[in-house]
Structure formats: C-alpha cells, structure tokens
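Predict structure. Chain length: 223.
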Amino acid sequence: IRWSRSGGIVTMTFHEALPGRPLTWANVQAKVSQTEFNKYVTPGTAQYNLLIADLDKVAVSLKQLRDAGVPVLWRPYHEMNGDWFWWGNKNNFNQLWNIMYDRFINTHQLNNLLWVWSPNAPNSYTFPYTPKYPGDDKVDILAVDIYNNDFKQSHYEGLLGLAGDKPIAIGEHGEMPSSEVLQTQPKWVYSMTWGKMLTENNTTDQIQEYMDDSRSLNRDDVK
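Prediction complete.
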C-alpha cells in the first residue's frame, strides 16, 4: 500500500503450493499427473474444494488491497508451458486459470487486478505459447519469462503477435536486457528481475545501463 501511494506499481506472482499440502516450495513443484490434475479442475471433487479454499484465502488479502485502492499486476500460474510446477504442461491448464478468474472476479469482486499471463520463453525445454493462452477476455497483459540472456527476437515477436493490442512485458529475467535488446524490442512495458539474480547475474554497469536507458522510466518520470 505504501509503495502504491508513493507512485510505484505493485506486481504479485502467485506460486501456489499444491492445494491441501503445506506451503513449501517443494509443493509448488510437486509432480502431478494429468489424471490427478484433472481432479483439481473438476467441480465436486475433494481436490477442487481444496483449490477453492486456497483461492478464498488469497482473496482475503487481495481485498485489503482493493479496499485501499491499490491496483495489482496479478501474475498467477506462470511458466505453465514448462513442466516444473504442478500446473505446468497440462493440456487443460486454461481450466485452472478460468476457475481462479471466475472466483476472484465474480465471487470476490476483485476489480483491482490486472491479469498477467506469463509463460516461459518457448525454447528447447518448453512448449509454444498459444495452447496455454486463456483468451483475450481473461488476460490484460501478456508476459514472458526469459533467462540465460535468451532474448530472441522470435520470443518477442511471437508474444507481440499473440497480444494484439494488449501490452507485453518480461515477467521474469535473470540477466537484464541490454540497450541493444531494447532497441529491437521496444514494446516491453515492464520487466522484473528474479530476486537475488539482480546482483548475481548482472554487473553494476549492466544494471546502471538498464536503468539509465532512454526507454526506461522511473517513478519521477511518470508522476
């Protein structure tokens, strides 16, 4: 709330543990078969009820932000075109997204969320964007997670083509995009460095270059 009122933009990434299990990173990365996943998105099952209970708990916190007038870039179930999260690489992933969307919008009236859909860059260990896209009516911003300096122009243009008139972003990165990358990929509206990788994967000069680039904006530029 303080950050928003100071002119900052709030973004939240939801790493949900497998519903019903303790809130640990291991349970975010739990191995779940397609058959088992189906139970979590099928109304009436015990697994579905666990999912709904999870979403209702999260909604309590999001309502506090709504009531304080804080808009949130809400980025759930990211990198769904990879296989390292329990929701990853499922042929009916969109059902999970739709359940959350319906619960938050229609049941909890969370009108402060901007929905950010954020697959991983489609590389040798992931799959294409399009099959996991929930649709224009349930996505506000399309993002992509890029690591190991994998800023291929095809990743950018593929997302831009899917987005149409919607904004695109870099949902996560380890290495900051260089000025050369930003020159050929000018339509990214924001990017987010993954935590400690800011200093582990980037030199001070690289960070400064990104922050000082003429395409970068800070709070003072937009107040």
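Summary: The mean pLDDT is 96.
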